[in-house]
Design goal:
- The complex is a heterodimer of chains A (943) and B (429).
- Chain A is α/β, with parallel strands linked by helices and 943 residues long.
- Among the domains of chain A are: 2-104, Ubiquitin-like (UB roll) (Roll); 291-356 and 566-705, Rossmann fold, CATH 3.40.50; 375-541, Dimethylsulfoxide Reductase, domain 2 (3-Layer(aba) Sandwich), CATH 3.40.228; 828-922, Barwin-like endoglucanases (Beta Barrel).
- Chain A is 25% helix and 16% strand.
- In chain A, helix 10 crosses helix 19 (553-560) and helix 20 packs parallel to helix 21.
- The longest helix of chain A is centred in the middle third of the chain and has 16 residues, at 355-370.
- Chain B has three domains: 4-235, Rossmann fold (3-Layer(aba) Sandwich), CATH 3.40.50.11540; 244-327, Ubiquitin-like (UB roll), CATH 3.10.20; 332-428, NADH-ubiquinone oxidoreductase 51kDa subunit, iron-sulphur binding domain (de novo design (two linked rop proteins)), CATH 1.20.1440.230.
- Chain B is 44% helix and 11% strand.
- Chain B has 18 helices and nine strands.
- Chain B has a five-stranded mixed beta sheet with strand order 6-5-9-7-8, sandwiched between helices. In chain B, strands 3-2-1-4 form a four-stranded parallel beta sheet, with helices on both faces.
- In chain B, a hairpin with an 8-residue loop joins strand 7 (284-288) and strand 8.
- In chain B, helix 7 packs across helix 10 (216-228), helix 14 (332-346) runs antiparallel to helix 17 and helix 16 (375-387) packs antiparallel against helix 17 (397-411).
- The chains are: A alpha/beta (943), B alpha/beta (429).
- The interface between A and B is large, with 44 and 37 residues.
Chain lengths: 943, 429
């Protein structure tokens, strides 16, 4: 720490930072534009000027003091012991006001119709600077705006040229198609021509832009001001990374999702799937009332049930004499899954995954819980100094992780910067010194990935070959690790190279996951990490990360890991067909996405009742005997566990409409109905969470993920609505002139009102960032302990998996370098290609994501295409057992030989048994799409 | 009077080829430097000679070079390449001295580069040349080819074990490319935005490597200093600042042009003796001593010595040493408008005061010219001269642009006010 004087007060600030950061960390107000906490300083906007005096604060007394000082840009000035500065000096204030006046010469005064209004950093900084009167008499320059795709609006006239957008898009996110063009006051930030922004993290431009140039296009379609949005701390449900979000609601519909800072997880940024994938919540065809199958008509005709009828139907289906089986879901909360397990009994509870998927997930959890290797939080990923990615297409299965991996270049940059004595926060200078240098990242994948540009070397092959490579790397690091058979020279050499780099790294990171659907790949990654952790010098620095598939895959895995041996859907079918079950209860799980339709039909035809709880009318929901309407993440609370093993609580943003209720609430009712015992009823989420923690040792800490429902500060709850929330007395006046009572939230310490404790709240209960004078998301620094540091009171969430330090490196720890067992007998190996847009079930039901989604396609090599007699645009039938799926052909060399690479997770392809051998045949009845060219998948790297 | 820089430059517009240049004593200095001198000796010699940069800022060249880290104890850092970059992007309004040197005697520049690169242990040099200077680029390219052919460039130059390649890079345009860090960005193929300093180019310059950027004329001095020594060099000058300087005069004089003269030659002598005095019917009202970004001086300054110190003391800068004369039949407001239009247009758009302040200044001046100026505008103009001052902006472009404005407001205030009172430009009637 060094001691500095700011406006006659002495402060202790950390060494090595810049003045702006130091001032903001101290809680002082100082305006800025071009600086961004995640992107450092470049000194462009000149807004953060302060006066620096040439004498030390403890050096000179009285008249001798430097009273003039000189203007410096605080973002570009390193703090140094003894320095004396002033924020309040008149010449500094005047300069800052003058800079605003200059920025305003061209800025339109369209705040009333600007979507940034009310959360505009430019508005805030203008207020802060004291500038009020316009003197410029000239005309404002005007620009043409561009169409940038379904996610983002472009209004260039509002631009104040802070350069944050291009610095974020190009430097931080690695995008190529947003640039600064022209010069002087005509600088233009956009694409070379209208078109969809390619980068998967483009949505962050909305939050990075300090004014209304880039705004959320999905919000535009049902716009509400920030001050009118009801929000809650939430967790993204669109992959397993568990990014913290703050969704906003008005008039009973979800209007947008913005980032919620968590220094351990997502920091300041989300991926576009997470930000723009919320539309499914608002779908008109949501399940809003309980429904039963009509007895008279065909399958698809449903009858809506009243609440009384629902109760009757439930009693009939799950009454006390009924024998139940329960199927959980990796996209439902821990509480919902646990409640179902309690209702049916642990011996009758199943994970809702295929045997294959269940096996992969369980292996990963076993590995993480028994190895002396730490699962990193996302933020730790950025600090890795060597990375091996084995088999995972990170961008498409765990997008936010890809953005973190891109930041590992900083580690390499910091090394050089230290040599040249460049402060780490001086962003442009660090990048200049680094040039194309980067942290070594090795990517072995089935096909090219969208982060290959940051890789030192890439390798594309079958999962089997990837696994072999992994085993060989482990062996090269530690000769005790088993050596694979049949290694090619290329693999051998690459393994040696990678082993050398990983071994010499201080913080090596191994990433794999379920993406390849290969147990061998997962085990190979474990061997590499195990070998690395055995190094004498830095045993505890090795990190091992597995990308899981869904928002609560880890939670479900931990819940079931202490259960029975076979949790799979295949076992469910066996039991339904063999034993005395009466009713199957399926929780938020469209089994048609998990297993083949023929298998689901076996369930449906088993003669058992099917009770289903879900949000959307998916294929299985439409077939359920009784379908119960359940809340989405926006309407219910619950705990999710991310791929890092971090349990995080997500809260309802607003109360569900119609008969929609949280899954755990339905199940709680069902248990009561079944037992006829009101006494033991779970009334509140906390009770379910507590029961879950008590019942499952691995989940014991989850109660600490957030304060309980009875938490109060000075006797007050915490309001979900901002203090300026408007229209409460009027918004429902068309229905009833009396203002209704605000709904009561008994399940959390949050309230559906604007009333509540106004001061500092626990981070896990902070619904939005807002601070006096800081109406925009830039106010987040008021909630951090220091810039880029943890939130005050600690970042939310609790880690459930810590490395087993006591685990000894015994021979038994090594996995054999074996091959996956391939099912099926066909000529072709079926491999998955994931898509950030389309492969995830819920976001794919949201309009802008659907617009970006891939068509269902199959990629194969030219030689394969020749032998099958197909070419690009034709149809190909994939035969899985007795059933065929026809997909559009895309001929490309970006596919292993003898393989069919299929867009995964789409309605036609989600259930496909990847990594098995199948037969394929040209579909002669296929109608080519009118567009001659085939949709190019998002996966492909721009050449 | 010795004119080492222009001694080979005749009026026939054909520069000496390698043979002729050698016959006139060329490449002797390079030979001496590479074979007889240590790089440290040459650096010392330049420091002793007090050579100052001729690009405009007048920074002592030896000192600039001494900031290049040699990493004596760090072998892995020593192996990092270093670069010498010649700033031939002569875009300062009114300036054409480097063109004279490059078109007149390209080998002189190349010899200077060889010695300088050897001193810096840089094995690659770039000549970043103004796009419009096509003839310079052709001549230099040809001269470089001659040198390669005769072992003066390439590997093991003159058997000295020193390697050097020179590349000619023609600029895609823009005044800001003359700012050394913007030049480096441009050379890297990026937008020509200046960089924050520190780190200075000597530490992290071209492609993040140690780099020295020098003006053409500065480098042309180097061979002569090596040949003749520091004392000789200092003796060339009439005053305390060492050496000769290519001075230029443009405007309504009888004989506009450029001449190599001792530093410290009085302004009046340059205008009257070399430029032939004012054209008949025109009187001098003021002059920009060193290009468009220097402050106006007036008649009272005609007896000043043209050197860094004297011109600096008078409130202007020697700049590039190429004067622009303003006569009594030219509207000072119009002339400043013309300059500010240039600077506003050439702003790279990176920092706020320059990007948005210069267009405002330009707008006000154009309003003056249209007879729509207001007294309040005088205050706004004055405010901009401070607001866009040194340290407030990211680089020196805007402070340079404020030079002529600030001095015009001081010396020609009555002309500005006359525009307001007359509601028209008095010169346009």
């Amino acid at each position: 720490m060094v001691s500095i004087e700011i406006d006659n007060r002495i402060y202790q600030v950390p060494e090595g930072g810049n003045l702006l950061q130091a001032c903001l960390s101290l809680g002082l107000d100082l305006p800025y534009f071009c600086w961004h906490p995640a992107m450092g300083s470049v000194g462009a906007c000149r807004q953060c000027a302060v006066i620096q005096y040439h004498d030390r604060h403890d050096e000179v007394e009285g008249d001798q003091r430097d009273e003039q000082g000189r203007l410096v840009m605080s973002c570009m000035t390193p703090v140094s012991e003894g320095m004396r500065i002033s924020i309040d000096a008149k010449n500094a204030q005047d300069f800052r006001s003058d800079v605003i006046e200059l920025l305003m010469t061209n800025h339109p005064h369209d705040c009333p119709v600007c979507e940034e209004g009310g959360e505009c950093h430019l508005q805030d900084m203008t207020e802060m600077s004291g500038y009020t009167q316009r003197k410029y008499r000239g005309k404002k320059r005007t620009h043409r705006n561009q169409y940038l795709g379904p996610f983002i609006n472009h209004e260039m006239n509002r631009c104040i040229a802070c350069y944050r957008c291009v610095r974020y898009y190009q430097d931080y996110a690695g995008g190529h198609d947003l640039e600064v063009m022209a010069a002087h006051n005509h600088v233009y930030f956009g694409r070379h021509e209208d078109g969809v922004l390619e980068n998967e993290f483009s949505g962050n431009l909305v939050e990075v832009c300090p004014t209304g140039v880039f705004t959320d296009r999905t919000l535009s379609q049902h716009y509400a001001r920030k001050w009118d949005l009801q929000t809650a701390p939430s967790i993204c449900v669109h992959c397993a990374q568990g990014c913290n979000t703050s969704p906003g609601e008005r008039y009973g519909t979800l209007r947008r999702v913005v980032n919620r800072y968590n220094s351990k997880v997502n920091g300041y940024f989300l991926c576009d799937r997470g930000r723009f994938g919320y539309g499914f919540v608002n779908r008109q065809d949501r399940v809003t009332h309980a429904q039963c199958l009509s007895e008279t008509d065909a399958d698809s005709v449903r009858e809506t049930l009243s609440r009384g009828e629902t109760r009757e139907a439930l009693l009939n289906a799950i009454g006390s004499e009924k024998r139940l089986l329960g199927v959980g879901s990796p996209r439902a909360s821990l509480e919902a899954n646990f409640a179902l397990r309690e209702m049916v009994g642990a011996e009758n509870f199943y994970s809702g995954l295929s045997r294959k998927q269940q096996g992969l997930q369980q292996s990963i959890i076993d590995i993480l819980r028994t190895r002396p290797v730490r699962v990193p939080d996302l933020a730790e990923v950025e600090r890795a100094d060597a990375v091996l990615i084995l088999g995972e297409d990170v961008m498409n299965t765990s997008p936010r992780l890809a953005l973190s991996l891109r930041q590992t270049a900083h580690i390499a940059g910091e090394k050089i910067a230290d040599e040249l004595r460049i402060p780490h926060w001086q962003d442009a200078a660090v990048r200049e010194a680094l040039q194309s240098g980067k942290t070594p990242i090795y990517i072995a994948s089935i096909a090219r990935t969208r982060i290959d540009d940051i890789a030192a070397q890439t390798y594309q092959d079958h999962p089997q070959a990837i696994a072999q490579l992994g085993f060989a790397i482990a062996n090269a690091i530690d000769s005790n690790a088993p050596f694979p058979d049949q290694l090619t020279d290329v693999q051998q050499q690459l393994a040696q190279d990678i082993a050398g780099v990983l071994t010499s790294a201080k913080n090596p990171l191994v990433i794999s996951g379920t993406g390849c659907q290969s147990l061998a790949v997962i085990e190979a990654a474990a061997n590499v990490a195990t070998a690395l952790s055995g190094r004498a010098d830095s045993a505890n620095a090795t990190r091992l990360f597995y990308c899981l598939a869904e928002s609560n895959s880890m939670g479900l895995g931990l819940l079931t890991s202490e259960g029975q041996d076979d949790d799979s859907l295949e076992r469910v079918i066996e039991r339904l067909e063999s034993d005395q079950t009466d009713t199957l209860v399926v929780l938020e799980n469209d089994l048609f996405r998990r297993i083949g339709a023929d298998q689901v039909e076996r369930i449906l035809n088993s003669g058992k009742q099917l009770v289903m709880l879900d949000q959307l009318k998916n294929e299985l929901a439409l077939r359920a005997d009784l379908l119960l309407p359940v809340a989405t993440f926006a309407e219910a609370e619950g705990t999710l566990v991310n791929s890092s093993g971090r349990a995080q609580r997500s809260f309802a943003v607003y109360q569900p409409k119609d008969d929609v209720r949280g899954s755990w609430e339905w199940i709680s009712d069902m248990i009561t109905l079944r037992q006829g015992d009101e006494q033991s009823r779970w009334e509140h989420l906390d009770e379910v969470t507590q029961s879950c923690a008590d019942a499952v040792a691995a989940l014991a800490p989850i109660v600490d993920a957030a304060p309980a429902a009875d938490y109060r500060i000075q006797g007050m709850k915490i309001g979900r609505q901002p203090h300026r929330y408007s229209g409460r007395t009027a918004m429902l006046a068309d229905q009833n002139v009396s203002e209704p009572k605000q709904p009561v939230d008994e399940d959390s310490a949050l309230a559906f009102t604007m009333e509540g404790f106004p001061g500092e709240k626990p981070a896990a209960l902070t619904p939005f960032y807002w601070s006096p004078g800081w109406n925009s998301n830039q106010s987040v620094h008021k909630f951090q302990q220091e810039i880029n540091g943890p939130l005050k009171g600690g970042d939310p969430g609790v880690r459930l998996i810590e490395p087993d330090e006591s685990a000894e490196l015994a021979v038994a720890q090594w996995f054999d370098a074996t091959e996956d067992q391939q099912e099926g007998q066909g000529d072709w190996l079926l491999l998955p290609a994931y898509h950030i847009f389309g492969s995830e079930e819920l976001s794919a039901q949201s309009e802008p994501i659907a617009e970006r989604a891939s068509v269902p396609y199959v990629t194969l090599r030219a030689d394969s295409a020749n032998s099958l007699g197909v070419q690009t645009g034709d149809g190909l039938q994939l035969w899985i057992g007795e059933q065929a799926v026809s997909l559009e052909v895309q001929v490309s060399d970006d596919c292993p030989g003898g393989a069919l690479l299929v867009a995964a997770g789409l309605p036609k392809t989600a259930h496909l048994p990847f990594l098995s051998r199948i037969n394929a045949l040209k579909d002669s009845s296929w109608t080519r799409r009118p567009e001659a060219s085939v949709f190019l998948s998002d996966k492909k790297v721009e050449s | 009077m010795e004119t080492p820089l222009t001694k080979n430059i005749g009026t026939d517009k054909t520069p000496p080829d390698l043979k002729q240049y050698r016959a006139n004593g060329g490449y002797r200095a390079a030979h001496k430097a590479l074979l007889e001198m240590e790089s440290g000796d040459i650096l010392q010699l330049l420091q002793d000679a007090d050579l100052r940069g001729r690009g405009g800022a007048g920074f002592p060249t030896g000192m600039k070079w001494s900031f290049v880290p040699m990493y004596k104890d760090r072998e892995e850092l020593q192996r990092r390449p270093k670069y010498l970059v010649i700033n031939a992007d002569e875009m300062e309004p009114g300036t054409f001295k480097d063109r004279l040197l490059m078109e007149g005697d390209p080998h002189q520049l190349i010899e200077g580069i060889i010695i300088s690169a050897y001193t810096l242990q840089a094995e690659t040099a770039y000549i970043f040349i103004r796009g419009e200077y096509t003839r310079c680029a052709e001549l230099l390219t040809k001269a470089i080819a001659e040198c390669r052919e005769h072992g003066l460039l390439g590997r093991n130059i003159m058997h000295s074990r020193f390697n050097l390649d020179i590349y000619v890079h023609t600029s895609a345009g823009r005044y800001i490319c003359g700012e050394e860090t913007a030049l480096l960005n441009s050379l890297e193929g990026k937008r020509a935005n200046p960089r924050a300093k520190p780190p200075f180019p000597q530490v992290s310059g071209l492609w993040g490597r140690p780099t020295v950027v020098n003006n053409v004329e500065t480098i042309c001095n180097v061979p002569h200093i090596v040949n003749n020594g520091a004392d000789w060099y200092k003796g060339l000058s009439l005053t305390g600042d060492a050496g000769t300087k290519v001075f230029g005069v443009s405007g309504r004089v009888k004989n506009p042009g450029a001449w190599e003269l001792p530093l410290g030659t009085p302004v009046r002598e340059i205008i009257d003796k070399y430029a032939g005095g004012m054209q008949d019917g025109y009187k001098l009202r003021g002059f920009l001593p060193g290009g468009g970004s220097t402050n106006f001086l007036t008649e009272q300054h005609l007896d000043l010595h043209m050197d860094y110190t004297s011109i600096g003391k008078a409130g202007s800068r020697l700049g590039t040493g190429t004067m622009i004369i303003m006569d009594d039949k030219t509207c000072p407001v119009g002339m400043v408008l013309n300059l500010e239009h240039f600077f506003a247009q050439e702003s790279c758009g990176w920092c706020t005061p320059c990007r948005d302040g210069l267009p405002w200044v330009e707008h006000i001046l154009s309003e003056f010219e249209k007879g729509r100026g207001e007294m309040e505008d005088m205050e706004i103009l004055n405010r901009h001269t401070h607001l866009l001052g040194p340290g407030n902006t990211f680089c020196a472009l805007a402070p340079g642009a404020m030079g002529p404005l600030e001095s015009a407001l001081r010396y020609f205030r009555e002309d500005f006010e006359a525009h307001i009172h007359a509601k028209a430009c008095p010169w346009s009637r």
